[in-house]
Amino acid sequence: MATMATLYLFIVLLLLPLPYSYADPDPLQDFCVADLKSAPSVNGFPCKLASEVTSGDFFYDGLSKEGNTTNLFGVNVNAGNVLAFPGLNTLGISMNRVDLAPGGINPPHSHPRSTESGIVIEGKLLVGFVTTGNVFYSKVLGVGEMFVVPRGLVHFQLNVGDGKALIFTAFNSQLPGAVIAPLTLFASTPSVPDDVLTRAFQVEDDVINGIKSKFGL
Ligand SMILES: *[C@@H]1O[C@H](CO)[C@@H](O)[C@H](O)[C@H]1NC(C)=O
To answer: How many whole angstroms separate alpha carbon 156 and alpha carbon 108?
Structure first.
């Protein structure tokens, strides 16, 4: 009987669709420190000559300082991606530092190339995302608590604590990209036509112009 059960389990396992989740491709060598100035354009960046690689290529202190949150959203996102930290090239990971003023928001946005996880270092935040089925998941997080946002889904972090807030986020992409909903729709270059926005949001021109003016347009 035990053998039958084992066989049955084995067959079930074989029939299960294999879960896979990868973002950036795997490296084919130890490292490929990005040569950001290389002329040839490739998917990613060409490698710096190994003879020119130094310890400095594998360390980055750009996320050590508090960001300036004196802006419209009360947020500063410091992206430690391959453009800032070329040692990440081909390794499929990166991190951001997000500082939020009291009441500040990292506005609804998505990362087209990456799933995100994050951890609260300071403060209290409402963290949430919406699925492609339009279901909203959220929670208020305190220090040391983590969250995850599945790849490509629209999400935000709102500082709901009394003081400033700080989170660090991690990505399975060296360049996750960010589609920031309000800026994408209301502050693109050139502008998305007002007709598109008035129809999409079911409002009059003055509402659209009011929003655009907030972003200096
Ligand atoms: C922060 O940014 C604001 C707006 O750009 C600027 O006026 C202010 O001087 C900056 N503060 C610091 C400490 O750099």
So the answer is: 5
Cα(136) to ligand 1 centroid in Å equals 34
Write the pLDDT tens digit of every residue in 46-80.
999 999 999 999 999 999 999 999 999 999 999 99
Rounded-to-integer distance, Cα 77 and Cα 165, Å = 12
Q: What is the pLDDT of residues 91-120, one digit of tens each?
A: 999 999 999 999 999 999 999 999 999 999
Cα–Cα dist 196/74, whole Å: 28
Residue 58, Cβ neighbours under 10 Å: how many?
A: 13
71 is in an annotated binding site: no
Could you tell me which residues come within 8 angstroms of residue 43 by beta carbon, excluding any fewer than 6 positions away? Answer: none
Sign of the torsion angle spanned by Cα atoms 60, 72, 153, 110: negative
- pTM value is 0.88
Nearest atom, ligand 1, residue 71 CA: 4
116 appears as a binding residue in the annotation: yes
Find out whether 106 is annotated in a ligand binding site.
yes
- Residue of the CA atom closest to atom 4 of ligand 1: 70
What the block records as the tokens of 186 is 């209301």
Cα 193 from Cα 165, distance rounded (Å)? 36
Question: Which atom of ligand 1 is least distant from the CA of 68?
Answer: 1
Cα of 76 from ligand 1 centre, angstroms: 11
Whether residue 176 has a cis bond before it, omega within 30° of 0: no
